[in-house]
From TrEMBL:
It comes from Neogobius melanostomus (round goby). Residues 142-187 form a coiled coil. The keyword Metal-binding applies. This is B box-type domain-containing protein. Keywords: Coiled coil, Metal-binding, Zinc, Zinc-finger. It comes from the Eukaryota. The lineage of its organism: Eukaryota, Metazoa, Chordata, Craniata, Vertebrata.
Length: 193
């Protein structure tokens, strides 16, 4: 872990914490990594940070290595022939660069929000259509059910009436046949005598 702490590519150049310690690491389009909190605090440049090597305040920013350095680091062999800026100026430059790189993201975010709003509206419209269509289907089936109940009652009534008529005709025919049988019986008895 000591080697990781010393590797500048694994450290936030402002907080100088190993990436493993980040709760929310952020990688910019320029491939530099920072703590999300450090990016948010850029409006107040980190003037109270201390160099881990020389225990001096970090007042400069090495443009070559893209990291804050102390005055002793500037004069050291490690940063020989490097270009430096005051950390406040460098922070402003990086903030401006970050703002420029965030513009497309902000536009895309707004587009995404607009699409989301549109999709929510479409989903609500679909729900309303489903609700209305469901109501129409239920109403139509109630009408159809009522029609079928009435049709069943009407046909059952017609069937009963037809049954009564046929039964009555059958009774009338049986009565007529019975009368004929009686008449024939009387005639046959009268001929015997």
């Amino acid at each position: 872990t000591n080697s990781m702490k010393q590797d500048p590519q694994l450290c936030c150049t402002f907080s100088l914490q190993p990436l493993m310690c980040f709760k929310e690491p952020v990688v910019l389009s320029c491939s530099h990594s920072f703590c999300k909190g450090c990016l948010k605090s850029w409006s107040d440049p980190p003037l109270n940070l201390v160099c881990r090597v020389h225990s001096e305040r970090l007042k400069l920013f090495c443009l070559t290595d893209q990291q804050p350095v102390c005055v002793v680091c500037r004069d050291s062999k490690v940063h020989e022939d490097h270009r430096f800026r005051p950390i406040v100026e460098a922070a402003q430059d990086l903030r401006d660069e970050l703002d420029k790189s965030l513009l497309p993201l902000k536009k895309n975010l707004q587009k995404a929000k607009d699409f989301k709003k549109e999709f929510v509206e479409i989903a609500d419209c679909i729900k309303n259509q489903v609700y209305q269509t469901k109501g129409q289907i239920e109403a139509e089936f109630k009408k159809l059910h009522q029609f079928l109940v009435e049709e069943e009652e009407s046909r059952m009534k017609a069937l009963r009436e037809e049954e009564e008529q046929k039964t009555q005709r059958m009774k009338d025919k049986m009565a007529a046949v019975s009368r004929e049988i009686e008449a024939l019986s009387e005639m046959s008895e009268n001929t015997k005598v």
